[in-house]
User: What shape does this take?
Amino acid sequence: MNFEMQKANMLAENINGFIKYVQKSHENKNLLRFNPDKVYQIKLIIEEFKFQILADELLRINRYDWDGKYTHYLVDRLNEGMAIIDEFVKNNYNELFLFTARLYILKGLSQSFNKKE
Assistant: This one.
């Protein structure tokens, strides 16, 4: 398997993990860990930028063959949403600091796709 394909698949799996973590945090409404309204805001941003579709597409196109152009397009779309979520978490760090680790992993994986020219 191509190294780039593995990175794309790993990114897609981590996007799915982040989505599940946000959904579970929203459903549990643990007031000691998170402010439910702020978690709901992150959930809305995820839905607005269609993270689930991006993750599914990354898995689909990189299952058997590496498609660099479309992968970079999907990663760019992901980065747009991640920038908004990252800024929101930084602005509300006291209530959402547990999301920073997952965001750090996603940013690191997505930055590994920067075009090297």
